[in-house]
Amino acid sequence: MSMPDNLVTLEDVRERFFRALTPDEERVIPAWLSDAWDELMDLPYLRLTERLAEPPEEGLLERVGRVIRSAVLRRLQNPQGRRQFSYTVDDATVSETLASETLSGAWFTDDELAKLEPAGFASDAFTIRTDAGLPGPIAPLPPPTDEWYPWTSL
């Protein structure tokens, strides 16, 4: 599936970037937009191919566009994908963290991908299911009848 026309354009990125783009940046941005789209389509748990093939749910295309735009803007700010950069002059070292967010793959943060998850998709980690495997109403427990509970009658 190819990216819909005008979902995210060079002009969208140009308007949102903090400075004027260089000719080289303007040349690579359309390819980056296409690459980001392809990366999203390759994530099977998002099921974007089938969700976009049928009439998409409300706002899905807009969310996909925002995620792609954010990824490309982040790549423009840090094209080498460095997480940390430091340089030393004589006895002074300057260190700078460039990408503190957790990236899933080379493009997207976990928060961005969470915005695109299908409805009802969630991990069961840290979930306590109170009804799992129970046949129906819980039968009352019989009273304890051993030496550990002397206050009960035998």
Concise overview:
This protein is α+β, with helices and mostly antiparallel strands and about 150 residues long. It contains five helices and four strands, in the order ααααββββα. It has helices at about 10-15, 25-40, 50-55, 60-75, 110-115, and strands at about 85-90, 90-95, 105, 110.
Structural summary, described in words:
With 154 residues, this protein is an alpha+beta fold. The chain has a domain at 10-115. It has helices at 10-16, 23-41, 48-53, 60-77, 110-115; strands spanning 84-89, 92-97, 103-104, 108-109. The strands form two sheets. Strands 1-2 form a two-stranded antiparallel sheet. Strands 3-4 form a two-stranded antiparallel sheet. The protein is flat, with a radius of gyration of 26 Å. The mean pLDDT is 81.
From the structure above, extract its key features.
154 residues, 4 strands, two-stranded antiparallel ribbon, alpha+beta, 10% strand, 5 helices
Strand fraction equals 5-15%
Helix and strand content put the structural class at alpha+beta
Based on DSSP secondary structure assignment, what is the total number of beta strands?
4
- Low-confidence stretches at least 5 residues in length (pLDDT < 50)? none
**Order of helix and strand elements from N to C terminus:** HHHHEEEEH
